[in-house]
Amino acid sequence: MLLQNAGLSHVRTKALTEFTDLARSAFGEFVNLRILQRLDLPTKEKESEKQINVIDAVAADNAPKPDDDVAVTPLEAEVFSYIKRRLAFLVKDDRLFNEIEFVEQRKYKGKCVVFYKRERLGRLFDFFEGRVKKYHFDFGQAGSEISTDNLVDVDKVLLGVFTRRLEEIEPESKKSHSPKGIIVTA
pTM for this structure? Predict the structure, then answer.
């Protein structure tokens, strides 16, 4: 009868028996909300807003500070600046040279990630310190793992990974600088 008053007709009795518990709890919740409104007691929505405010305050207190383990170490900063300078030396093309400014780093606990434009797709390498040698680079699938005491040892792999990432992120249409419709003949 309530369903007919709400404009719902042709509801099968099998469907009614399946959703009896759900309908009962919905009506109970509706009645409870009406009672709370009349008594001017806080509803669940207001309580959830208060909980969100409390959670935000706690999250602000627990925000990572520069002194935490997630701060970039001096060795990681040195490696990052060296890699950018070295890439500028290694590239032979002006277009590649201009793209070096988009190389960035992000610090995680235990490692530093260096990437080109996009952290996952453009990942150049992961840098770890404190292993067998002073510098440990993991170039992932594109390269290999290199542990070394001399940063020059990663030049070949670094240049290869950088050019590969650039080609993967930049589509072929952006590489050509000639306008459409103009045919250049030699």
Answer: 0.53
